[in-house]
């Protein structure tokens, strides 16, 4: 077991996304997962039925005690559902983990592009979390919210990635899954270069939690000492196989096979 990852995110009772997907991913890749849970959800493969919010002070306490005792080699944030929780996480990062690598999965938009957070929350993510990110992993709707412009073409994807790097992120993985095509093309954008990563598009409804899983896989690689591009490439391969071998659970958007690395 190598690489301690502290995950700050919400719980998915269905097990396909959120904290559950994060823990499975980190474990499957040989790391150690600790958590600070920001919200509990009653969720299945169709929808989120209810959310039970965790008080911001308790989110902070979870982070504080883990960092003080166990420590972390990388921190990953997922959906920070309220302004209070977001500001609290920003504060703890600044106080206790200013130099730790941070993978930010800016969970702000639903699959259809609808915003899941208030405009002022987007502003805080843009001004406080993005500049702190070692790797930022937005999908197309999320990148558009952060950029403030629609993204409709591959050229837009690259321009948005450069704009987010200009805000301070060390690297931005622009996920291209929302764009049409036989292949999924992601761009890893840094100040110095843009790396194009392409994989065949798998036709499947069992893709619930892919964003959470990818970001946690990247965080695990960084915690284990991999360079950012190597961590991203390994994470993409892991997610690709997890989709290909998905178990088919549920009658909606089902979960991935997070355990494929453990199978003979």
Explain what this protein looks like in three dimensions.
- It is globular, with a radius of gyration of 17 Å.
- With 264 residues, it is α/β, with parallel strands linked by helices.
- The strands form 2 sheets. A 6-stranded mixed β-sheet has the order 3-2-1-4-5-6. A 3-stranded antiparallel β-sheet has the order 7-8-9.
- The longest helix has 17 residues.
- It is built from 8 helices and 9 strands.
- The protein has one domain: Ribokinase (UDP-N-acetylmuramoyl-L-alanine:D-glutamate ligase, 3-Layer(aba) Sandwich).
- Strand 8 and strand 9 form a beta hairpin.
Question: Top keywords for this entry?
Answer:
21% strand, 9 strands, globular, three-stranded antiparallel beta sheet, six-stranded mixed beta sheet, alpha/beta, 264 residues
Summarize, please.
This protein is α/β, with parallel strands linked by helices. 39% of the residues lie in helices and 21% in strands.
Furnish the topology, listing elements before pairings.
Elements: E1 4-12, H1 18-28, E2 32-43, E3 48-53, H2 56-69, E4 74-77, H3 83-96, E5 102-104, H4 119-129, E6 135-136, H5 140-147, H6 154-166, E7 171-174, E8 183-190, E9 194-200, H7 210-223, H8 228-244
Parallel strand pairs: 1-2, 1-4, 4-5, 5-6
Antiparallel strand pairs: 2-3, 7-8, 8-9
């Amino acid at each position: 077991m190598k690489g301690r990852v502290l995950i700050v995110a919400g719980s998915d009772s269905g097990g396909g996304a959120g904290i559950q997907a994060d823990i499975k991913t980190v474990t499957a890749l040989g790391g150690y997962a600790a958590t600070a849970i920001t919200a509990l959800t009653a969720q299945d493969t169709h929808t989120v039925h209810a959310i039970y919010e965790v008080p911001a002070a308790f989110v902070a306490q979870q982070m504080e005690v883990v960092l003080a005792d166990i420590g972390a080699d990388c921190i990953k944030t997922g959906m920070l559902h309220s302004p209070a929780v977001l500001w609290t996480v920003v504060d703890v990062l600044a106080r206790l983990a200013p130099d730790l690598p941070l993978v930010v999965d800016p969970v702000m938009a639903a699959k259809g592009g609808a915003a899941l957070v208030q405009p002022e929350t987007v502003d805080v993510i843009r001004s406080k979390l993005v500049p702190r990110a070692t790797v930022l992993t937005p999908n197309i709707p999320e990148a558009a919210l952060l950029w403030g412009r629609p993204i409709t073409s591959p050229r837009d994807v690259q321009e948005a990635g450069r704009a987010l790097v200009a805000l301070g992120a060390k690297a931005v993985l622009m996920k291209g899954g929302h764009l049409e095509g036989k292949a999924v093309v992601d761009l890893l954008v840094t100040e110095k270069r843009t790396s194009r990563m392409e994989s065949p598009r798998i036709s499947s409804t069992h893709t619930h939690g892919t964003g959470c899983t990818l970001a946690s896989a990247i965080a695990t690689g960084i915690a284990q000492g991999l360079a950012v591009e190597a961590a991203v490439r390994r994470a993409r391969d892991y997610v690709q196989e997890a989709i290909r071998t998905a178990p088919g659970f549920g009658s909606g958007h089902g979960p991935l096979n997070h355990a494929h690395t453990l199978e003979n």
